[in-house]
């Protein structure tokens, strides 16, 4: 029967709204890709991100453009050269991983890990808002071990103090989403150090972060929007202490595994993150996150509904996917 590829856009409503420094959203549109061979279907998911010049229509077009190559049996290695890094390649790459697992009866975990995958702690994200609202959300989730706080305004001190007071025992990560400037970053760093913040993600805009190599960094700084390719890593060592690996940036699990290995060699702290998506997008990322310092795979917890079956979350503990979902 051969192989054939399908790609569709799907909408999942957000529970309330999700706000970062660049804006708010009440729904997430994902692109699901399936590759079927002899009645066996492998699946993958991606989230096109406008910050990186992606759109739903553009990603669907890019996926469908490789349909003929997929039908002719292209493998993941060849895919890396045929498609550029980004969301579209992620969906196809993860669908191929899943298809290989189902056709061979050998799980993805057994191929990429040295031991059986374990449940891991994920960060829980608190959207950007007024200090009182963020504190209230933090109080609701104060028992979670790891909170990720969206910031990125001209003055986030009140937000940080309010959240820390509401969740005094949680490990806290700040994600400024490129929203700070060279004029306020020193002040925010000082506040973060005082409040025992563990990590700060992407405080300055990508390409405008040279000052990070020149000033004291009292808290570990993590590159997100700045890092996409494995070849980016060496040039970031003077400015960043950590990197956030997302499959929608690397273009799939195949390249993400390469990036992780190189990041470890270079001594970076590693976070595995996600876009706002469903369990299908989280499943391959959980394989990558097994032995990393931080995981931010809470996408399904922020949605009204998830896929069925989905990943199993117990508080902030996320369990490995069942084969019916992926892998």
Automatic annotation (TrEMBL):
Q: Which InterPro entries match?
A: DgoD-like, Dipeptide_epimerase, Enolase-like_C_sf, Enolase-like_N, Enolase_C-like, Mandelate_racemase_C, Mandelate_racemase_N_dom
Q: Residue limits of the Mandelate racemase/muconate lactonizing enzyme C-terminal domain?
A: 131-222
Query: Which metal ions or organic cofactors does this protein require, according to UniProt?
Result: Mg(2+)
Spell out the protein name for this chain: Dipeptide epimerase
Q: How is the cofactor bound?
A: Binds 1 Mg(2+) ion per subunit.
EC number(s) for this protein?
Answer: 5.1.1.-
Task: Cite a single Pfam family from the UniProt record.
Answer: MR_MLE_C
**Family in the record:** Belongs to the mandelate racemase/muconate lactonizing enzyme family.
Its keywords, alphabetically, are: Isomerase, Magnesium, Membrane, Metal-binding, Transmembrane, Transmembrane helix
Keyword RNA-binding found: no
Q: Which residues are responsible for catalysis?
A: 150 (proton acceptor), 246 (proton acceptor)
The domain of life for this entry's organism is: Bacteria
What residues does Mg(2+) bind to?
175, 201, 224
Q: Does the keyword Transmembrane helix apply?
A: yes
**Ranges that cross the membrane:** 266-289
**Example GO molecular function term?**
metal ion binding
């Amino acid at each position: 029967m051969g192989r054939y590829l399908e790609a569709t856009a799907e909408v999942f409503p957000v529970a309330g709204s999700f706000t970062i420094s660049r804006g708010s959203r009440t729904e997430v549109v994902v692109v699901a890709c399936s590759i079927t061979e002899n009645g066996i279907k492998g699946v993958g998911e991606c989230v096109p991100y406008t910050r990186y010049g992606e759109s739903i229509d553009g990603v669907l077009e890019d996926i469908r453009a490789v349909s003929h190559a997929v039908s002719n049996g292209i493998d993941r290695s060849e895919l890396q050269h045929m498609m550029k890094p980004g969301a579209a390649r992620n969906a196809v790459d993860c669908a191929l991983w899943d298809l290989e697992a189902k056709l061979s009866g050998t799980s993805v975990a057994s191929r990429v890990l040295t031991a059986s995958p374990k449940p891991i702690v994920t960060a829980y994200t608190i959207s950007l808002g007024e200090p009182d609202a963020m504190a209230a959300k933090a109080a609701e989730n104060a028992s979670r071990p790891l909170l990720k706080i969206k910031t990125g305004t001209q003055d986030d001190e009140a937000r940080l103090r309010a959240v820390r007071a509401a969740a005094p025992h949680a490990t806290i990560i700040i994600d400024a989403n490129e929203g700070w400037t060279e004029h306020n970053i020193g002040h925010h760093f000082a506040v973060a150090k005082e409040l025992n913040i563990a990590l700060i993600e992407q405080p300055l805009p990508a390409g405008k972060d040279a000052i990070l190599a020149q000033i004291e960094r009292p808290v570990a700084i993590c590159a997100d929007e700045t890092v996409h390719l494995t070849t980016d890593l060496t040039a970031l060592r003077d400015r960043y202490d950590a990197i956030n690996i997302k499959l929608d940036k690397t273009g799939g699990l195949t390249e993400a595994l390469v990036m992780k290995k190189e990041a470890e060699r270079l001594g970076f702290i590693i976070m595995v993150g996600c876009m706002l998506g469903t369990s299908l997008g989280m499943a391959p990322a959980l394989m990558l996150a097994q032995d990393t310092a931080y995981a931010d795979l809470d996408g399904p917890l922020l949605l009204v509904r998830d896929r069925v079956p989905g990943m199993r979350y117990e508080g902030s503990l996320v369990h490995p996917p069942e084969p019916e979902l992926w892998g």
